[in-house]
């Protein structure tokens, strides 16, 4: 198949769609990606991409077109400019393309309008779309403080309904998604397919290097939605136990604020590692006795399952959580750690102390086995390819 992939994030940005595209190529498919000039999550262009000009490259067999992009930098205005620069340039690029693809794969992240290029290709050439949804729109706007009765919310509700209904197959990453789509847009038949972790995350590569401390690590984007301040506050509450150390691995819009918070609260048991390349992640995972997942307390966000959960489980890591909904359910179903409510730093601290005083062997085993059963990469790829081939025929 010749597959056109529309996604805002792609390598060298942290994005699992990179692994999916490279796997499709390895299995004999021709893949072209429309994406931005990399500047996420920090907001500055990556080394090797000094400006936002459009360019083409081939990465591990995947043809990548990077559309003109304004860097996010900081602030809401710059972020909106960045998103819409990609929207307009990607749609314009599609309008100048030829009818050369069999099917379109939209990797839907936030915000929803980033998927416009996929809908435009369908409109021009009549090709079908697989829409893989990892976020819920327009309800995600509420998390950012936009109320349902505002013109902005109503506008994005219309945009969201139009784009979701453009999909010939709609797939969600959480079991909670289908009910939302049916209630919000009257869309039925949504399919469930959870994400998987890249192959480099394995119990062998990520096994804890023994030491005298109990190390807890958060890995991933450090933004407002992740509410990593819950970890800083929990760290302060565990300072009486000198064995417990907290590690933050990643970058994002809230990183500097969190460093200041840690300094103000004298949370000297928190270690900031910054952002590291994907290939180095197992080395840092091997520092951890357990991995941490936190998220904002919000009924919409609680429906999602952060992709880091699959990475944690594939590595055979116990999970310590302060997060509601789907993730809390998964951790309890798997019996792979302890999970309290979102933004509850006291409960997070208490659970950290409990875990520090018990063996992690059972949690590690359960974590890995649950991942193999429910978040299997081979099952994921077979399902995606089957869906794409049916759309092509």
CATH architectural group of the largest domain: 3-Layer(aba) Sandwich
CATH superfamily of the largest domain: Glycogen Phosphorylase B
User: What integer value in Å does the Rg equal?
Assistant: 21 Å
Termini Cα gap: 10 Å
Q: How would you describe this structure to a colleague?
A:
- It is a single chain.
- This protein is α/β, with parallel strands linked by helices.
- It folds into 2 domains: 2-196 and 376-392, Glycogen Phosphorylase B (Rossmann fold, 3-Layer(aba) Sandwich), CATH 3.40.50.2000; 203-374, Glycogen Phosphorylase B (Rossmann fold, 3-Layer(aba) Sandwich), CATH 3.40.50.2000.
- It has helices spanning 17-26, 76-95, 116-125, 140-143, 151-165, 177-185, 203-206, 229-237, 255-264, 281-285, 308-314, 325-334, 345-356, 361-374, 377-392, and strands spanning 2-6, 30-36, 55-59, 62-67, 103-108, 129-133, 169-172, 191-192, 214-219, 244-249, 270-274, 290-294, 319-322, 337-340.
- It has an 8-stranded mixed sheet.
- Helix 12 links the parallel strand 13 and strand 14 (337-340).
- The termini are close together.
Would you spell out the secondary-structure blueprint of this structure?
Elements: E1 2-6, H1 17-26, E2 30-36, E3 55-59, E4 62-67, H2 76-95, E5 103-108, H3 116-125, E6 129-133, H4 140-143, H5 151-165, E7 169-172, H6 177-185, E8 191-192, H7 203-206, E9 214-219, H8 229-237, E10 244-249, H9 255-264, E11 270-274, H10 281-285, E12 290-294, H11 308-314, E13 319-322, H12 325-334, E14 337-340, H13 345-356, H14 361-374, H15 377-392
Parallel strand pairs: 1-2, 1-5, 2-4, 5-6, 6-7, 7-8, 9-10, 9-12, 10-11, 12-13, 13-14
Antiparallel strand pairs: 3-4
Helix pairs in contact: 2-3, 8-13, 11-14
């Amino acid at each position: 198949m010749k597959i056109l992939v529309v996604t805002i994030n792609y390598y060298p940005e942290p994005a699992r769609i990179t692994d999916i595209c490279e796997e499709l190529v390895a299995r004999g498919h021709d893949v072209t990606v429309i994406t931005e000039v990399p500047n996420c999550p920090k907001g500055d262009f990556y080394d090797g991409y000094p400006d936002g000009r459009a360019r083409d490259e081939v990465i591990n067999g995947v043809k990548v077109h990077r559309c003109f992009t304004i860097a996010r930098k900081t602030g809401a205005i710059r972020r909106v400019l960045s998103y819409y620069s990609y929207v307009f340039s990607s749609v314009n690029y599609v309008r100048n393309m030829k009818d050369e693809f069999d099917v379109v794969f939209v990797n839907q992240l936030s915000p929803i309008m980033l998927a416009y290029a996929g809908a435009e290709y369908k409109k021009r050439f009549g090709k079908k779309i697989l829409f893989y949804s990892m976020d819920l729109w327009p309800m995600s706007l509420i998390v950012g403080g936009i109320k349902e009765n505002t013109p902005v919310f109503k506008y994005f509700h219309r945009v969201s309904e139009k784009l979701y209904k453009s999909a010939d197959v709609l797939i969600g990453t959480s079991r909670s998604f289908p009910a939302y789509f049916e209630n919000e847009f009257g869309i039925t038949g949504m399919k469930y397919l959870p994400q998987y972790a890249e192959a480099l995350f394995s119990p062998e590569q990520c096994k804890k290097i023994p030491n005298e401390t109990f190390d807890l690590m958060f890995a991933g984007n450090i933004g407002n939605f992740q509410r990593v301040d819950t970890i800083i506050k929990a760290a302060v509450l565990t300072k009486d136990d000198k064995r417990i150390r907290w590690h933050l691995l990643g970058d994002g819009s809230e990183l500097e604020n969190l460093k200041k918070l840690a300094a103000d609260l004298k949370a000297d048991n928190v270690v900031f590692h910054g952002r590291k390349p994907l290939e180095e992640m197992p080395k840092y995972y091997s520092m951890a006795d357990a991995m941490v997942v936190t998220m904002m307390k919000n009924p919409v966000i609680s429906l999602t399952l952060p992709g880091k959960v699959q990475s944690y489980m594939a590595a055979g890591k116990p999970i310590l959580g302060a997060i509601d909904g789907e993730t809390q359910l998964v951790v309890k179903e798997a019996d792979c750690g302890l999970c309290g409510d979102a933004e509850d730093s006291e409960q997070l601290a208490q659970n950290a102390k409990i875990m520090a005083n018990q063996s992690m062997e059972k949690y590690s085993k359960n974590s890995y086995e649950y991942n193999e059963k429910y978040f299997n990469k081979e099952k994921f790829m077979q399902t995606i390819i089957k869906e794409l081939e049916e759309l092509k025929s």
